[in-house]
């Protein structure tokens, strides 16, 4: 017990840190800024170089290290060894190119300014690394971890963390101390062997351990076990020269294979949130405002140079993997900052006489100012990356990245399904369509998944489905359905928009993660949007009602009530949409389709006689659905209005020839 009036030595710092974080993060929320920006600014304000509310930086840095460890552990738990294996090529090729080219570029620029090669390599080490904590935190907040941008970002960051081992071993050699390069390579080999041994042992022992601990029913014991697994694995890895954070990430990967992964994640998240905030605040504390203001032109120039260099190098590395400029630029700007582990390397270099750009203390202060500034700008850079990429796609640069020509598909392909995305959902759909004998083609951007589809003997187009020429190679003008099952909601919206423009008679089904995406995708042209969170909720409450033996007809009524409430913005009923989707090939090659008429389309405001669909195109109008009412066999003087759904019968070629009547805007 402490006597009255006496506080723990670290309590003042902790209270100041948390209180400032709450106030500034709330202000950032009101200004619609990312919380990370608030944490960094809070650190700048309360740090020793500003208000001086926190002076014990060693204590804060220790807590910050715990925050990074817990963050990487939770990312590992949410990931899996299987997913890691799928992005192995990206880790080696993409990460290797990014780190290698970044170091080479810095050395080259340094030589132009007369910098010593060893100092140039050391500075290249510092610049090549990006912030794992910030990059993964932003991906997690935006739900993009499983998107192409998320997987590529994670792959490059993992390679960077692995490269730290080699960098730490090489720094003494660059400083003129330590052993020979052969000794460094031997130490690197030993470190990799230790990593492999720990992973193998942990994969065998951890599931057994978590089973035994969970069987006790003691939640406190389970939490303590998860914490010791996280911190302990990181500590053991650090003995091999691996960063604590990478060790924690690998521990999380092992835990992800356990059936207790979900519980472990829920137990650790509150701790991770608190300590992660401490980490970002601690980074902000490093910034010396007086130095920044005194050398503002220099800091801004260096920050701009680092940003440009890393964005160009990373974008080029992703393009080399076969991805389009839109994705490449988003990844490039998202990790264009300098990482937190560069601080560790900078301190290691200082101990052997190395400094950023060989400028001594001035170089160190400039490095810190540039790093903190770029970290603060990262959320804005990430958003700008997608915006810039979308515009670059309309320039000659848009042809970079995905350079392979689409394979030729049979000219006889018609009334088929276009599957966009060959992930788990796309694979299952392809299997079902193959089993029942329906024609389909797969469009996949990920080279590994495209290889997998080709190995299965499927018709595959490699490329970005939001590009019109890719969809045209898939004979979209004669297709009946387009099913979009990709994890990038923004990309899905672009695919919907382009597909609807190219073939307004096409039925478009989109799988999305969140209900909030429904209306946006519908406006883009989707006929059916299936939000995972809603369908999961329906599945859950159906099982709950079954457990209480609620009659099936009552359960079905509740399901329809929920769906009609949440899908209320759909045109027409869900039942009608499903009917149109499931109808197949009629006799004489005729097909049935439901087409939505939009504002601005040539068909809007005209009568059926004026449209002359049957006379000009051979298409028959079976019915028109308007405001919940169905008009069967409408007469020639029936006037079409925006929002109507026309049920048509015709051949695939006839639908393609009449598509212009339903287009409401110019080609994107």
Walk me through the topology.
Layout: H1 11-30, H2 35-46, H3 57-78, H4 81-86, H5 88-112, H6 117-128, H7 132-141, H8 148-174, H9 181-215, H10 219-239, H11 244-256, H12 261-285, H13 289-294, H14 296-320, H15 325-334, H16 341-350, H17 360-392, E1 417-420, H18 424-436, E2 440-444, H19 447-455, E3 460-462, H20 468-473, E4 481-484, H21 489-502, E5 507-512, H22 518-524, E6 528-531, H23 532-547, H24 552-566, H25 574-582, E7 591-596, H26 608-611, H27 613-617, E8 620-626, E9 629-632, E10 645-650, H28 652-658
Describe the structure.
By secondary structure, the protein is α/β, with parallel strands linked by helices. The protein folds into three domains: 11-396, Up-down Bundle (Na+/H+ antiporter like fold), CATH 1.20.1530.20; 417-570, Rossmann fold (3-Layer(aba) Sandwich); 585-662, 2-Layer Sandwich (Alpha-Beta Plaits), CATH 3.30.70.1450. Helix content is 62%, strand content 7%. The protein has 28 helices and ten strands. The chain has helices at 11-30, 35-46, 57-78, 81-86, 88-112, 117-128, 132-141, 148-174, 181-215, 219-239, 244-256, 261-285, 289-294, 296-320, 325-334, 341-350, 360-392, 424-436, 447-455, 468-473, 489-502, 518-524, 532-547, 552-566, 574-582, 608-611, 613-617, 652-658, and strands at residues 417-420, 440-444, 460-462, 481-484, 507-512, 528-531, 591-596, 620-626, 629-632, 645-650. The strands form two sheets. It has a six-stranded parallel beta sheet with strand order 3-2-1-4-5-6, with helices on both faces. Strands 7-10-8-9 form a four-stranded antiparallel beta sheet. A hairpin with a 2-residue loop joins strand 8 (620-626) and strand 9. Helix 3 (57-78) packs across helix 7. The longest helix is centred in the first third of the chain and has 35 residues, at 181-215. The chain is globular and about 90 Å long. It starts with 10 loop residues before the first helix and ends in a 10-residue tail after the last helix. Residues 568-587 have low confidence and may be disordered.
């Amino acid at each position: 017990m402490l006597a009255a009036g006496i506080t723990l030595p670290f309590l003042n710092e902790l209270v100041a840190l948390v209180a400032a974080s709450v106030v500034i993060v709330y202000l950032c929320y009101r200004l619609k800024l990312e919380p990370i920006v608030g944490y960094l600014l809070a650190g700048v304000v309360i740090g020793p170089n500003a208000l001086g509310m926190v002076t014990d930086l060693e204590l804060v840095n220790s807590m910050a290290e715990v925050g990074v460890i817990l963050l990487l552990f939770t990312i590992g738990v949410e990931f899996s060894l299987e997913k890691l294996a799928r992005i192995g090529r990206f880790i080696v090729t993409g990460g290797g190119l990014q780190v290698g080219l970044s170091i080479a570029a810095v050395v080259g620029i340094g030589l132009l300014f007369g910098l010593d090669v060893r100092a140039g390599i050391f500075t290249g080490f510092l610049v090549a690394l990006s912030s794992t904590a910030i990059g993964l935190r932003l991906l997690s907040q935006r739900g993009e971890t499983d998107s192409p941008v998320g997987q590529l970002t994670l792959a490059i960051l993992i390679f960077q963390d692995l490269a730290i081992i080699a960098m730490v071993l090489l720094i003494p050699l660059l400083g003129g101390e330590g052993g020979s390069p052969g000794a460094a390579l031997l130490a690197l080999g030993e470190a990799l062997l230790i990593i492999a041994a720990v992973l193998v042992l942990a994969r065998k022992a951890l599931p057994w351990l978590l089973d035994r601990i969970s069987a006790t029913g003691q939640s406190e014991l389970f939490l303590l076990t998860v914490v010791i697994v996280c911190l302990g694995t990181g500590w053991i890895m650090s003995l091999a020269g691996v960063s604590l954070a990478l060790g924690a990430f690998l521990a999380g990967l092992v835990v992800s294979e356990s059936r207790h992964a979900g519980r472990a994640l829920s137990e650790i998240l509150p701790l991770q949130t608190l300590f992660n905030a401490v980490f970002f605040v601690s980074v902000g504390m490093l910034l010396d405002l007086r130095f920044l203001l005194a050398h503002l032109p220099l800091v801004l120039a260096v920050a701009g140079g680092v940003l440009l260099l890393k964005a160009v190098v990373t974008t080029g590395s992703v393009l080399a993997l076969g991805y389009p400029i839109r994705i490449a630029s988003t990844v490039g700007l998202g990790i264009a900052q300098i990482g937190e582990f560069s601080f560790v390397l900078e301190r290691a270099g200082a101990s052997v006489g190395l400094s950023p750009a060989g400028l001594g203390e001035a170089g160190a202060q400039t490095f810190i100012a540039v790093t903190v500034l770029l970290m603060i700008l990262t959320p804005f850079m990430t958003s700008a990356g997608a915006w810039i990429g979308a515009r670059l796609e309309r320039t000659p640069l848009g042809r970079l990245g995905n350079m392979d020509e689409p394979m030729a598909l049979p000219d006889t392909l018609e009334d088929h399904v276009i599957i966009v995305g060959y992930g788990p959902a796309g694979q299952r759909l392809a299997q079902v369509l193959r089993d029942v004998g329906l024609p389909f083609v797969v469009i996949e951007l990920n080279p590994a998944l495209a290889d997998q589809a080709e190995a299965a003997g499927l018709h595959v187009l490699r490329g970005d489905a939001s590009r019109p020429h890719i969809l045209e190679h898939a004979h979209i003008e004669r297709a009946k359905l387009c099913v979009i099952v990709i994890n990038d909601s923004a990309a899905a919206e672009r695919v919907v928009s382009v597909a609807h423009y190219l073939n307004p008679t096409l039925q478009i089904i989109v799988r999305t993660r969140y209900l909030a995406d429904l209306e946006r995708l519908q406006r883009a042209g989707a006929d059916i949007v299936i939000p995972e969170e809603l369908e999961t909720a329906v599945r859950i409450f159906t099982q709950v009602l079954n457990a209480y033996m609620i009659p099936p007809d009552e359960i079905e009524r509740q399901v329809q009530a929920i769906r009609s409430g949440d899908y209320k913005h759909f045109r027409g009923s869900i039942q009608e949409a499903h009917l149109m989707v499931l109808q197949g090939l009629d006799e004489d090659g005729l097909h049935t389709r439901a087409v939505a008429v939009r504002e601005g389309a040539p068909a809007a405001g005209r009568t059926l006689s004026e449209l002359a669909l049957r006379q000009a195109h051979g298409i028959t109008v079976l019915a028109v659905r308007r405001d919940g009412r169905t008009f069967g066999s409408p007469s020639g003087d029936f006037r079409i209005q925006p929002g109507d759904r026309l049920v048509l019968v015709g051949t695939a070629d006839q639908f393609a020839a009449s598509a212009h009547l339903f287009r409401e805007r110019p080609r994107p």
